[in-house]
């Protein structure tokens, strides 16, 4: 993406209420300082850990619902 004659090392896409997408351009990624790269790697790890927590919470909610349904069911013996 070239704006004002300056090639940027990344581009972004944002739609309010949806998501923010940040893309780093491959040829320019080598220009990123080591410290920035380390932060990006750490950030990626934190994002993955956050996603893991989200998935774990969703699984827990599903298991709680299943247990609640199982408790509500009762067996009625008919003579």
Please supply descriptive tags for the structure shown above.
79 residues; alpha+beta; 2 domains; two-stranded antiparallel sheet; two-stranded antiparallel ribbon
Write the layout of secondary structure elements.
Elements: E1 2-3, E2 6-7, E3 10-14, E4 20-24, H1 26-29, H2 34-72
Antiparallel strand pairs: 1-2, 3-4
Tell me about this structure.
The protein is α+β, with helices and mostly antiparallel strands. The chain has helices at 26-29, 34-72, and strands spanning 2-3, 6-7, 10-14, 20-24. Strands 1-2 form a two-stranded antiparallel sheet.
The number of helices is 2
Into how many domains do the coordinates divide? 2
Question: Spans of 5+ residues with little confidence (pLDDT < 50)?
Answer: none
User: How would a textbook summarize the main sheet?
Assistant: 2 strands, antiparallel
Strand order of the largest sheet: 1-2
Cα shape: elongated
- Quaternary state reads single chain
- Strand-pairing-aware structural class: alpha+beta
Mean pLDDT level: 81
Taken as a percent bin, the fraction of beta residues is 15-25%
Tell me the number of strands. 4
| Amount of helix | 40-55%
Measured between the Cα atoms of the first and last residue, the distance is 78 Å
Q: Nearest-angstrom radius of gyration?
A: 24 Å
The ordered H/E elements are: EEEEHH
Summarize the structure.
The protein is built from two helices and four strands.
């Amino acid at each position: 993406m070239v704006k004002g004659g300056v090639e940027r090392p990344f581009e972004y896409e944002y739609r309010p209420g949806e998501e923010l997408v940040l893309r780093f351009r491959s040829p320019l990624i080598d220009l990123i300082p080591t410290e920035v790269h380390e932060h990006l790697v750490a950030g990626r790890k934190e994002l993955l850990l956050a996603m893991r927590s989200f998935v774990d919470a969703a699984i827990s909610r599903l298991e709680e619902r299943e247990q609640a349904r199982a408790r509500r069911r009762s067996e009625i013996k008919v003579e």
